Queue: 2 jobs
Job 1
Amino acid sequence: MAPPPAAAAALAACILAVAATLAAADDPYRFFTWNVTYGNINPLASTPQQGILINGQFPGPRIDCVTNDNIIVNVFNNLDEPFLLTWNGIKQRKNSWQDGVLGTNCPIPPGANYTYKFQAKDQIGTFVYFPSVSMHRAAGGFGALNVYQRPAIPVPYPPPAGDFTLLVGDWYKAGHKQLRQMLDAAGGALPPPDALLINGMPSAATFVGDQGRTYLFRVSNVGVKTSVNVRIQGHSLRLVEVEGTHPVQNVYDSLDVHVGQSVAFLVTLDKPAQDYAVVASARFSPAAAAAAPLMATGTLHYSSAVSRAPGPLPPPPPEQAEWSMNQARSFRWNLTASAARPNPQGSFHYGTIATSRTLVLANSAPVLAGQRRYAVNGVSFVVPDTPLKLVDNYNIANVIGWDSVPARPDGAAPRSGTPVVRLNLHEFIEVVFQNTENELQSWHLDGYDFWVVGYGNGQWTENQRTTYNLVDAQARHTVQVYPNGWSAILVSLDNQGMWNLRSANWDRQYLGQQLYMRVWTPQQSFSNEYSIPTNAILCGRAAGLGH
């Protein structure tokens, strides 16, 4: 029986009110349409090159969003090769389906498109995106992704007069296909890069501000393999963010930023109104040890300046690892500051939690089938034709090497494989990265932040735990491991999914220095993990299986 008209009207009004409340409660959406193409670029004035452009731009468009915004990016691949983007540092809460690496996503075929749908959930800070297939990132396709705080959650410093984004990285004259051919032919490391760039330029980037005001500089290393040191002539750098978390605000003359890392610092324009050099120089590589180390320069331009500041460019710090390691140890978590959530960072007492297991992961450079590869505990990762996330979702056999990477180096013969380490949701684990080579390593974990509790020289032993910082270690998503040294992290596995743990040095990643971690619970629930997207591309052995 139908309700009386008055009751029906009241019911309709109630439904509309509830719907309006739900709509108002939904976090904002930001929509982007990106066309990925080849195009002519000229970052090194004497050498025109074919670059990878997004909407005709190199570097790609900057995404500015706010904590918890929903990001919808429809990517059209107009290249002649499959293409993917990964969102470096965005945790993809419960949603590794959107991570954009070859272990979670089928690449976008030439002439096709894919729409990423993800949320900057409970995050704030300086991030980047870049191509994750092959050596595409050496040709462009990268850009900034800045997540600003909600008005209700203050940051621990006064609002700056403005902020500047610096995408710093190494650059090659050779194209991405030529670089890939080098690696495929003989393996081993790429040769030293030809240049460093700031925002796609070796010397023309300019940042304009007013005398007496303070600005936020967001710096990300988007290069292939080279660590950099960043400094500004005559000015101090007050560190205020490290990859989405707030550190104690120490002041530095310069900052080391390793591949895949991001930092943000405040600079007050308190000098005479002139132009000052912004300098990035290579660190810990043949490019840094050369007679003329690689360097990129920009300009901090005071708006009323009519001349350049006198004097030489600010010199780099000592090349020795000890200087850089001591700087890294000085990065400390600000325990009283809020990040994206209202509760203080220090309310999570990570140092009091017992670890459930320890992984000691050693990088190496074995020769397999006549090719120099890179490996983790003797296993060199080979990318399968079917993403591991799809393999796991559809229970496809004989693809994944479950737990085939030993928890510690075991001295077994080097071998190839497709290793996935199985871990339980809500485990709390210790990971030690052991570097037995003379090359600085940079390690990144998708889906997570972690606490960097220790750095050291030589071989790690369990006795090193007495040196860990268990109170205010810096949280971040990418950690450097110094030559012939170790770095230790603690990770709270609160994000279910298939997550890539990889070398951020892209030639090493391409040749096998990576693995995946499946964080899982048998309790299937949307509160733990989202289902496969209806628009997921299916390829390899998952082709035709349906969603």
Note: Residues 1-24 have pLDDT under 50 and may be disordered.
Job 2
Amino acid sequence: MGIWWWRLILVSLAGILFSPKHGASQRVTGMKYTFMKNASSAPSVSYYEYEYIVIGGGTAGCPLAATLSEKHKVLVLERGPSPYGNPNITNLDAFGAALSDTSPNSPSQRFISQDGVINSRARVLGGGSCLNAGFYTRASPYYVREAGWDGKLVKKSYEWVERVVAFEPIVRQWQSAVRGGLLEVGVLPYNGFTFDHIRGTKVGGTIFDQHGHRHTAADLLEYANPTQLTVLLQATVSKILFTNKGSRSRPVASGVIFMDALGREHRVYLKQGPKSEIIVSAGALGSPQLLMLSGIGAERELRKHNIDVVLNQPLVGQGMSDNPMNAIFVPSPVPVEVSLIEVVGITNVGSYIEAASGQMFTSRSPRDYGMFSPKIGQFSKLPPKQRSPEAVAKAIEKMGMLEPAAFRGGFILEKIMGPISTGELQLETSDPNDNPSVSFNYFKDPRDLKRCVQGIRTIEKVIESKAFSRFRYHNMSASVLLNMTANSPVNLLPKHSNTATSLEQFCRDTVMTIWHYHGGCQVGRVVDARYKVIGVDALRVIDGSTFNCSPGTNPQATVMMLGR
């Protein structure tokens, strides 16, 4: 019996032995909780019942609500549906299906940044943990210190999360070859399997179990006290309400307005008391957007949308960043397994090397590039004014005409740390269902571009390594693979004909998202060190919008930990 089996058994036992006392009693058929309800069943007005209202049942909101419910009455308002019973969320081999669904009821909502890169935001209980590639890894000790967090409490909170959602992956041939290549080219030392962020090469955790089933932040609601928690689904918050008590000049958050799926308006008012609060956990787009819709933002911009100004705070929506991802597609002469992110090389030059392989829709559509597919918005070749659903559909049609051998292989990618480059978010309309306008300014800072180039050079060396030789055609040089990747449908930016001559141009032309965008309500700018919104009372923001840079190689573990 391999060591991963023993670790899996220990994780399972830990989940049984240390599960919360309420865990077994609060589930009903299909892993739905008894405290989950459709928002349409809520009263039109609710007075003074809840001490905390959490806006957004996502990667941070679910662990946050579960924790608060241990001692307080909590309401969660989630704009999306339940993830349970949806195989496009649950199953590893269906990865990308939810991201490719652009219907109004999809668990993902597509948006296009002003940079021309197609992206997605979550619209489901569990948030981005229902849509992502599943990699689970902690932030570095340096990140924890810089954030001013209590290291011991951080460790306990990570462990609390990991008892429910984190597993050791089964590393097969492709991922093993990437691992061997990283070690061969000097991304050392080898740190084995670990959740910790350590320089060198490691196998990280995953939220997919040994059966290929996804476990999400929504599963952390197992810890909740069901008598103290209510979760309303398909509840879209349009506004936070404020009052001014007596002679106090500071506005106090007192309630919210939300709409149900039928378009009916509901109001909920906080229970009166010194500890009662509204906590916004709507994500890096949703949280700054909702603050603006509620009157907290740059006065000049709010006036454009006829929004009453509660607090003139021009830093809301500033500092938006998305870690740029660039990848090289490597066709394989031999079959490869379906794998998402499992191995990572944490380099000393500020870039992280990861890999994914196989055809992600093996049972339904054998012609697809998984997390690099135009079906999920990884699209290229057109300038911004020519972006259209028709163009994406044409790319998907063209992909479907390729020979099956064209899809045998995988991508080795690099993501830069940080990043240093930032953009901004602004309202497009006053409708909370509409996407705001956002720019990330990929590679605006030359240091980001330098890190990308160094990462691509590392990938080239891995591809040419002896450890990886089985999975590449030896008549395909690195420059051939670069140009082949650069001419695939990746983003909406205009392309250059010979990117192999300039890795800088390759980085600019083939930039994609890895869905790690953050900022807009940053600590020290919009919220204080305790995540309280500066300038108002009874209002906090707790999610990735508060980050100044992305934690570790992948942020979801830290977002869940932060909620706890």
Note: The two ends are 34 Å apart (CA to CA).
